Amino acid sequence: xxxxxxxxxxxxxxxxxxxxxxxxxxxxxxxxxxxxxxxxxxxxxxxxxxxxxxxxxxxxxxxxxxxxxxxxxxxxxxxxxxxxxxxxxxxxxxxxxxxxxxxxxxxxxxxxxxxxxxxxxxxxxxxxxxxxxxxxxxxxxxxxxxxxxxxxxxxxxxxxxxxxxxxxxxxxxxxxxxxxxxxxxxxxxxxxxxxxxxxxxxxxxxxxxxxxxxxxxxxxxxxxxxxxxxxxxxxxxxxxxxxxxxxxxxxxxxxxxxxxxxxxxxxxxxxxxxxxxxxxxxx
Length: 283
Hints:
The chain has 283 residues and is an alpha/beta fold. It has helices spanning 17-23, 47-55, 68-78, 97-105, 122-136, 141-152, 165-169, 175-183, 207-218, 239-252, 265-271; strands at residues 5-10, 26-28, 31-34, 37-40, 61-64, 84-89, 112-116, 155-156, 158-160, 186-193, 196-204, 230-235, 258-262, 275-281.
């Protein structure tokens, strides 16, 4: 008899609640700490709350993963309804999640497997959804793990930010870079490469036009892109901005499915308002 497998992830996979329910995926919440208190991401605080906090003069904010004992409790609860868990975590370079989840998994004698996605946000979601699909197909842990290892290197995770203000707050760029970006209308493009976040490039000028140029550039080699699914993930962007990005994307590449997802508070606190990304899988 085949073992029943459950897929779990960190809430920073940024999957909409409807998809989490449809695919039977369980997520564990991260924490946001401000000078007004500590809050559970998605449950007690949203990206909109973070943006409003900074707009009204808030200064201090930090994000952190649940402690090992919280992961342990989370796994215990999920294992009530399955035999094994595959937990797909945010890139280990960005959080203690991988370390803490792995430490907790050691309590379960091989029933909990922790996988480093090497990505963040809906870059993780591509792996989560593939794993959940394979569970429905009756695949076992070894088969799913092998596919995840191959898929991880094919996922493209990138975002364009309106400015470098939040990157400066989180220590990713210097104050000089922040000032130059704001003064010269320079918009940084960030991407995940081999498990690390890098500055992939910049766009200069109107942010509206820069977003369109960014989308077109990311999707320029349509023949080398898997057309199954595209995520457009944003942090407090307007409907017009999202529509503009989606139009540019579908003009470039005909995806079977385009999912618009709102970034979690954890992700938004690190990138800021009006950040948007196109996340997909290469062939």
